[in-house]
Amino acid sequence: MDIVFVEHDDNDKFRDVRLRNKFSSVINSLESRLLAVYTELNESVLSAARISIMDATSVIDCTCCTRNKNNKNLFFIKMVFSSSNDAVEMLIHKLCHVMQYLSGQLDAGSSESELTWKGEKFILSDIEPHRMPWERDAILNALTLHKYYMASSSST
Fold first, then answer.
1. What is the distance between the alpha carbons of residues 94 and 65, in angstroms, rounded to a whole number?
2. CA 29 to CA 74: how far, in whole Å?
3. Are 79 and 141 in contact, with CB atoms under 8 Å apart?
4. 92, 149 in Cβ contact below 8 A?
């Protein structure tokens, strides 16, 4: 996976090289583990993914992961976080969404107000966020991946 950090204003947290390095370390250490969790994927699919990450704290109050409609390997993650630890947890969660898109479990619907999860169409305004099956999946897998990352980073 290639990662690009998008800078957009003077308050951008990604100007901090340590945070960029930490994100790169998280992604590098989890790549093989992501393949173990999302078994539909392989290394070539993962290596083709391009992710742009932006600190959106000053412009929005929520985080999101979107897929480019014209290039299915290009993703954009907007993050709102207060600390480095929060950022790592959020990054891992958003990586799960990238894996869901890459594996075909999650896909954009015909409009921006809908998504398809494992072939079933969902109108986003009709479902509470905690009931979205792709969120439940990402939360569970992110917990497992975060534990793995914490164990592997503390042993080095």
1. 6
2. 21
3. no
4. yes
CB 13 within 8 A of CB 55: yes
pTM assigned to the model: 0.90
Cα distance between residue 132 and residue 137, in whole Å: 9
Asked if 30 and 154 count as a contact pair (C-beta separation under 8 A), the reply is no
The CA–CA distances, whole Å, from 112 to 28, 51, 89 equal 31, 20, 26
pLDDT tens figures, 83-110? 778 889 999 999 999 999 999 999 987 7
Q: Which residues pair with 123 in a beta bridge?
A: 114
Q: Read off φ and ψ for residue 4, nearest 5 degrees.
A: -125, 130
DSSP structure class, residue 58: T
pLDDT in tens, 72-84: 999 999 888 877 7
